[in-house]
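Allow me, if you will, to draw on your knowledge of protein folds for a short while. The matter concerns a single protein, recorded as an amino acid sequence and a row of backbone structure tokens. Could you please explain, in whatever detail you think fit, how the structure tokens follow from the sequence? I remain grateful for any guidance, and I place the record below:

…
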Amino acid sequence: MKTCVNQNKKNEPRKSCIINYRMNQEQENAENRKSAALSYTEAAVFFFIPIGFAKINRWENTDFNESEMERFKKHGFDRKIKQAEEMRKLGMIFYISISIILAYILK
């Protein structure tokens, strides 16, 4: 915790100083979230499962990727959003290319 010097007592924490410190910490966390990269496991999930599968309940969102994208947007993970969209596109290209190669081999 950051302390401020008061005229009466030295090194006594004041509310305004603590509030400023917390605001600065929140701003710093927001900036860190903007530049945070996808972890390897998150990238692998977006790559190998680029689209949602059949849902158990018609009205319930069971797609992990969609819920993660919503969480990224809600909390301001700008870089993660871009990387996740790129990984999904690459995953789709991967599966399309695998299916084309298998169709050619099995022909």
Notes: DSSP finds four helices and no strands in the chain. The helical segments are 15-35, 40-48, 64-75, 78-106. Residues 71 and 77 are 8 Å apart (CA to CA).
